[in-house]
Amino acid sequence: MSSSPHHSSAFSRRDALRTSAAATAALLSGCSPARKSLDYPKTRIPLPEEAMAMFRRYPDFFEFSSPDRLPANLPWQNGQDVPELGDPEAKKGGTYFYYNPDFPRTLRFLGPDASGAFRSYILDSNALALAAQHPDNAQWYPQLATHWAFSPDGRTVYFKLDPDARFSDGVPVRADDYFFCFYFMRCDYTADLWYQDFYTTKYSKITKFDDLTIAITVPETKPDVLYRAISVRPVPVHFYRDLAEDWESHYQWQFEPTTGAYEVRPENVDKGRSVTLTKVPGWWAADKKHHRFRFNVDRISIRVVRDQGKAFELFRKGEIDVFNMRLADYWYRKLPDSDQRVTSGCIHKATFYNEIPRPTWAVLINRSRPLLDNKDIRQGIQFALNWDLAIAEMFKGDGERMQTCSDGYSMVSFPDIKARPFSIPEAEAAFARAGFSKRGPDGVLTNDKGQRLSFTLTTGYKPYTDLFVILKNEALKAGLGLNLEIIEMTAAWKKMDEKKHDLGFGAKNVSVEMYPRFWENFHSANAYKEDGSIKTDTNNETQTAIPALDALISAYDKAETMDEIVRLAREIVAILHDDAAFIPAFVQPYYRVAHWRWLRWPAGFNVRSSRDWEEFHVYWVDPAIKDETRRALDAGSAAFPPSVRTFEQFRLKPSPSS
Amino acid sequence: MPLSPITIKRFRRFRSIRRGWWSLLLLAAILVASLFAELWVSNRALFVRHNGQSSFPSYGSIIPGSSFGLDYAYETNYRDLKASFSNSGSGTVILPLIPWSPGESDFRKGLNHPSPPDWSNRHLLGTDPTGRDVFARMVYGFRNVIVFAIAYTALTFIVGIAIGCTMGYFGGKTDLIGLRLVEIWETIPFLYMVMISISLVPAETGTAWRILCLLVIMVLFDFTSKAMQMRAVTMREKSRDYVAAAQLIGARTPRMIFSHILPNTISVLVTYLPFSIAAGISSLTVLDFLNFGLPKPTPSWGELLEIGLDHKESWWIVTSAFGALVIVLLLVTFIGEAVREAFDPRRHTIYR
Q1: Averaged over A482-492, what is the pLDDT?
Q2: Which residue among B204, B310, B314 sits closest to A309, beta carbon to beta carbon?
Q3: What is the C-alpha separation between A608 and A53, in angstroms, rounded?
Q4: Who's near A123: CB < 8 A, 6+ residues apart?
Q5: Residues B301 and B255 in one domain
Q6: pLDDT tens digits along A377-405
Q7: DSSP state, residue B345
């Protein structure tokens, strides 16, 4: 039996998939060395009056209790029997060099521009949570809490905080920081509707028994209640005492003290050029069981390199340590196994099959556009796109077709639904049902009114230009005209968020969760406003609005057992498949990298549900090997054992295609 | 209209400069060949004979495969048709020399793109990463860029001459204000302005309109040098005696400008013509290279250069694009030199 690995969450809404670390783990914790004494009363920071006012206003939500009201005989768990992560051989120290195509526009975790690709370095794969799920076996291990327990009705989780837990500025993590999280997410200053809603409706209560004991309650029983509970992160009260109207600009370049291993110090921010994260001195969790072999390097240096080709050159020179070889072009042509640096063993190549919910690479049909509101046309378009050929050419056989809008959840699968294959007769039949049966002079179908069956495909994913060209040429065979609009990434997403596209191509990152989300992408509340006008800036780019589907999604969001969730999810996906506005594109069930030999990983390379090589920080840099390699390169005598490896221990058997 | 003796003299002089003359002939030949590219670089057959009927698919509407007894309604694949006819002997297909269209990918088994030049596949200059024929893209890319450059040059000249002539002829406040405006306009960096302006064109604009916008924007930011030159020569011409004489016998302004000033000034501007075309070619190529030019997947040299630099290991892409660019710019420059030489006023004047 395998269960879904999940350890992250609600922090990240949607960020367009970037080339590198687009991890979405949302974790938190605090930190400082092995002092066991409780110095809480001395360093305690008074909560701002506005926060207190909110707590008083919602007494049912914010409960200040006392230790003696903590239920007795709670079945406490501590996760100490869960296996460790990382490799005991890992060397500590050194610097890990990598690049990012953009300089982060802010160091905030919330507010405008806060969900860029850089966020995973400073928050998602850095900060610790109350507890975390082991990425290999989905068991829970402790992070900021040492113990946790469930109430008999399964809606409340009790936590005992680790007295050692410190923020990076040395201030201990206490119950107030969790209370403050709700204030921070819900207050008028940070006003972000999505977060406000999430932290208002997805939780029903937070209780403080003492400074080190809290409980978090959710409105309905859920299979993943612990997952929901640990999404509440401690927000340092002392750091946000200046929270006011101007908080966005005030905190733009201030790094929120973290519970994680790495912090950003002001002197390590070189605006526009690089950001270097440094290990928190005496990090509180450094010797904890599940963390002691991770977070190995002392510094993570991320420089800005806007051009991928230039970054690759830097990698070849050894100025950055690792390169994402996702594109077949890089893997087979720019750095083939026969390259001298690979054969001499200086650069290693590794392919790692992971198991995660797949990013939703897809063509999204805007149902609110003329002609595209016709289901026959949408189904025809599905049959008219030759993904098999495009994937074969683009990925040189290393990609697979995505089958549904929610692939990769091991507990929620859709065995009966397969994406529609390329089929000219089926496409022509579907278009004919919609009245398009006559070919125009350029081969594009027309109807009796003289309308052409031609649409614009909008996207910002320039590296996939070849793929779009193939789709365009093949679609013409089925009588479908496609105009390619390959524009700048931000502009493309903006157009799709404004629902002005016909067809849009892209991917949204998906949190590693137990079961998929549908409300954001397919509920009519995210397609139209109450007055019937189009609602912009939502994730429902297909403008899906089907009453029966809405009802199912609402029931799904309230479902309390896994069986019910699976049953409803299957019904939902079947409706979406029939509606045909979401065209599943491709899945790459692995990631692959080329890396210099001094960058090391454990024997199995990485953990099962890792999205990329960095996310769980199990790598390390071996300075002796780095010296040795550099010297050998300088002397022109580099000859080490070459290493081109594939790690398939977590590879799923491809589902038989129908 | 009889040519004036001086024009004939200039033309003879131009012909006598061999390098320029041959460059012009060569460029004209390439231009004409590219204008009829469908006849020698295309996946459409030149001639098909099937069931006693002849067809000439090169131009016009697509001919669906079903017309030749094939089982599909999309455009006939004439290469396959030729193969099947030669097997069955049921018809004749004559293919162009290079049987590939610029937008078409070669997905036959066993080819790994980009693939190197190979005459047996008729990929004269290999393929690009999408499997498209580089030579076909070069030919159609040349047609696009040269047509664009000619249109660009024509427009720049018309606008530049109109404004420059107005300023030079009327002088006074018109000249003063116009001059200041042109000076301000000239300080705006051309390429940046074009890039910024073109990114402001709404994304849903169609391809043809986008190209037109690009053209207008480029002209808008590049007519000033022509205007300034025109202004100078107009002023010089205006002060000549024959102009005063014409004014004395009562010629009106339009007659003055169109019959007297323009014919005598334009010859000066003609010498700039080839260089302006060269500038048009390079500007469009640069913009394409930077992704601000023609919308993809229009064949373009800038795009080829970009792809080539991304795939340096596939040397044939960047070499072809770069080589072609160098050759064409060189030809244009040779022509320009010869024109300048032929139109050199010192050769046709008695004032030595």
Answers
A1: 82
A2: B310
A3: 45
A4: A11, A26, A109, A258
A5: yes
A6: 999 999 999 999 999 888 887 888 999 99
A7: G
Task: Give the Cα separation of B278 and A439 in Å (integer).
Answer: 41
Tell whether A178 and A241 lie within a shared domain. Answer: yes
Query: Do B86 and B95 form a contact (C-beta atoms < 8 A)?
Result: no
Which of B241, B225, B207, B89 has the alpha carbon at shortest distance from B153?
Answer: B225
Is residue A412 scored above 60 in pLDDT?
yes
Angstrom distance (rounded) from CA B263 to CA B260: 6
Which residues of chain B lie closer than 8 angstroms to A331, CB-CB?
none
Q: What is the span of the domain harbouring residue A502? A: 362-587
CATH code for the domain of B151:
1.10.3720.10
Please state the domain count of chain A: 3
Please give the torsion angle defined by the CA atoms of residues A188, A194, A197 and A198, in that order, rounded to the nearest 10 degrees. -120
Q: What are the residue ranges in chain B where pLDDT is below 70?
A: 1-3, 203-204, 345, 347-352
State whether A68 and A95 are in the same domain.
yes
Give the gap in angstroms from C-alpha A334 to the nearest C-alpha of chain B. Answer: 7
Q: Are A154 and A221 spatial neighbours (Cβ–Cβ below 8 Å)? A: yes
Burial class (CB in 10 A: 0-12, 13-18, 19+), B328: buried
Closest CA to B247 of B169, B175, B174: B169
| Judgement on whether residues A434 and A329 belong to the same structural domain of the protein | no
Prediction ipTM score: 0.79
Q: Which residues of B lie inside 8 Å of A (Cβ-Cβ)?
A: 60-62, 64, 72-75, 103-105, 107, 113, 129-132, 199, 203-204, 206-207, 291, 295-297, 309-311, 313-314
| Counted domains in chain B | 2
Helices then strands, counting H and E runs in chain A, come out as 19, 26
pLDDT tens string A258-287: 999 999 999 999 998 999 999 999 999 999
- Single residue among A543, A560, A587 that ends a domain in this structure: A587
The CATH number of whichever domain residue A562 belongs to comes to: 3.10.105.10
Best of B105, B207, B304, B306 to disrupt the A interface by mutation (most A CBs within 10 Å)? B105
Instruction: Tell me if chain B has a CB within 8 Å of the CB of A442.
Output: yes
Same domain as B194, residue B82: no
Residues B326-347 have pLDDT tens digits of 999 999 999 999 988 888 767 6
Number of helical (H) and strand (E) elements in chain B, helices listed first: 14, 3
In-domain check, residue B101: no
Same domain, A581 and A607: no
Nearest residue in B to A424, CA atom: B72
Distance CA B211, CA B205 (A): 10
Q: Which amino acid is at B290?
A: L
Q: Find residue A269's DSSP bridge partners.
A: A275
Q: How is residue A383 written in tokens?
A: 């049959």
What does each C-alpha distance from A545 to A197, A397, A551, B195, B331 come to in angstroms? 21, 36, 11, 39, 61
Do A502 and A535 share a domain, yes or no?
Answer: yes
Residue B16 forms part of a structural domain: yes
Closest residue by Cα to residue B308 from B319, B293, B298:
B319
Looking at residue B163, its amino acid is I
**Is residue A255 in a domain?**
yes
Whole-angstrom distance between the N-terminal and C-terminal Cα of chain B? 30
Predicted local distance difference test score (pLDDT) of residue A316: 94
Q: Residue A135 corresponds to which tokens in the numbers above? A: 């990425």
The single-letter DSSP state of residue B87 is: H
**B311: domain range?**
5-34+136-347
CA distance B115 to A471: 21
CB distance A274 to A303 below 8 Å: yes
The length of chain B is: 352
